[in-house]
Write a structure and sequence with these properties.
2 copies of one chain form a homodimer. Chain A has helices spanning 15-24, 38-41, 68-74, 79-88, 101-112, 147-163, 186-195, 222-246, 251-255, 258-271, 297-312, 315-329, and strands spanning 2-6, 31-36, 53-57, 94-97, 122-129, 132-137, 172-175, 201-205, 217-219, 279-282, 287-290. Chain A starts with a strand and ends with a helix. By secondary structure, chain A is an alpha/beta fold. The first copy, chain A, contains 12 helices and 11 strands. The first copy, chain A, is 44% helix and 16% strand. The first copy, chain A, has an 11-stranded mixed sheet with strand order 3-2-1-4-11-10-5-6-9-7-8, sandwiched between helices. The longest helix of chain A has 25 residues, at 222-246. Chains A and B meet through α7, α8 and α10 of A and α7, α8 and α10 of B.
């Protein structure tokens, strides 16, 4: 198995991307291919490079603020573009990138194309809740969709929950502004009607409940999904900030607050996206894990493990079976 | 000034509603009219009723789970319906209700009608951020709107920020999934285009930034707004829950965690919607403050003070001037 890593994507690339790959190398059975400017990557490789870490040169880099389509078209030798092409050519089984999310999405769509039966790709995010975690999608790939596309998101989300998150009979809920049937805007009402044909559909779920109830998969359009993600991040940071502001700066007075560290440690761990790795881009003929732009080495290491698991457990094939099998049923 | 209070609406009605009114009575210049089943209200009034607290009998109550339109049509003598009619008849200047939000919205729309120039009402929520607070609307009144309606929300939000929140030149941001122009779904792009004509428009804001940056007013449709509200509540509860679960239950071991209380106190206060009161329903020919169903006495007291401020500072007239003045300009 070969995992292709966009070594130049992300706020701390290539340093922390390379570091994450080096940390993952002893943990994976296959090869890691770092794609990027070899001159800029090499200084971070250290003395003894693990035998399963390879370099693949690419002369260009797509910046975090570049316009996705324009950048992909112009920079044919960008690390991201070269990486996606390696997967397309069969030289890689999955791509990991912490670069420009829009560019990564567009590049994989254009290079790999949608899987059979899928009309819109979706980015799925693993979020924490009281009972462990759940998958929210679409978190940002397809902002303008029809209610029909939410059925595809549900099917792909189930495939991911089964193959990578270890859920055996994942249930899917529709993110809505009320629990009962008939709630929501016209879009949500129509999506409900379409989803209700499936036995795995668990009905509507509210933004508050998804953090409190056991849930496997929650579907929504990318606009709502991205707002949920950013809002959650914002509130969590606000709270941590407020807690911190109450702790005295005086060293002696601070002592009394030491037990707070015990409390904040596990909290931070649960809230830390680096623990999970990245967000899978689902619905294409290839596995792509998109990482946060601010990813550290741990996030990259975990994203590589996530990609390995997705390939190992046949994520792409499972999506194909789940979507086509069910499409055939109706 | 007469503030009308739906004494039967809310999970803890009439007890905590009456208690909240009694707490507010000495603080307001006008009269408080408690509308509801007098037999059920009287036991909570205690020995000496303040002279400015009056009772107005209404024999019926709309339940929290009843279908709004159906309930309003059938229960002509419901506390909510009677209260809205008192305001319409000029016997009251504002209505406060912690009952069924959908019913309160529908009842006020049908009884008072939209203000001139306003096509959709909006519920505005005051949310905390690092710099104090900001107003988010629509938080739940009108789930299906056109981008044009967001301009009305922006104008009404400014009027509320000026009259009740004390902001002199409030800026309005559009909730979106990216900062730059051209980001978002088709709806957001069109709303941006319409808002950009106004000097008070501050551009797009992301879900994370609105909790971090100084902001006055943030507009979005009710579906997104309600999801933001519930998501924020959910994450905040998850975090508080996780912190609590780390504190030992053993009394002696607990001692070391006492300073945590010092930290959690101000945090809880900032996150507590009862501190603010309720959410104004904007865009109608009347002032309505909608409270959380689980409102306690403090929330009701603060909602009454909020309503008093809105009447005192001419919220309705300001909305009329702001909307018509600006409509005349284009």
């Amino acid at each position: 198995m070969n995992i292709v890593i966009d070594a130049m994507g992300g706020d701390f690339a290539p340093e922390l991307i390379v570091q994450g790959a080096l940390e993952a190398a002893p943990l994976v059975p296959g090869t890691l291919i770092l794609v990027g400017d070899t001159k800029r990557i090499e200084p971070y490789l250290g003395g003894s490079v693990p035998p399963n870490v390879h370099l693949h040169h690419a002369s260009e880099t797509i910046g975090m603020d570049e316009k996705p389509l324009e950048a992909i078209r112009k920079k044919k030798d960008a690390s991201l573009v070269v990486g996606a092409n390696l997967v397309k050519a069969g030289q890689g089984d999955a791509l990991v990138s912490a670069g420009n999310t829009g560019a990564a999405t567009a590049c994989c769509v254009l290079t790999w194309r949608q899987a059979p039966g899928i009309h819109r790709p979706a980015i799925a995010s693993v979020l924490p809740n009281k009972h462990g975690d759940f998958l929210l999608l679409d978190a940002g790939a397809s902002p303008d969709v029809d209610p029909e596309h939410l059925v595809e998101f549900a099917q792909m989300g189930r495939s991911y929950a089964k193959t990578v998150m270890g859920r055996s009979q994942p249930k899917v809920s529709l993110l809505n502004i009320g629990e009962e049937e008939g709630k929501g805007n016209a879009f949500a009402k129509q999506a409900y009607k379409l989803l209700t044909k499936y036995e795995w559909f668990a009905g509507n779920i509210e933004g508050k409940e998804m953090y409190a109830r056991p849930t496997d998969v929650v579907v929504c359009d990318a606009f709502v999904g991205n707002i949920v993600l950013k809002t959650s991040e914002g509130i969590a940071e606000l709270i941590v900030d407020m807690i911190r502001s109450e702790v005295p700066t005086n060293a002696l007075a601070k002592l009394a607050f030491l037990p707070l560290k015990k409390v904040m440690g596990p909290l931070r761990k649960k809230m830390d996206y680096a623990e999970i790795g990245g967000s899978p881009l689902l619905g294409l003929n290839g596995v792509c894990i998109i990482c946060h732009g601010r990813s550290n080495a741990k996030a990259i290491r975990n994203a590589i493990l996530q990609a390995t698991k997705a390939v190992d457990n046949r994520l792409i094939e499972t999506i194909r079976e789940d979507v086509c099998g069910e499409a055939g049923r109706t």
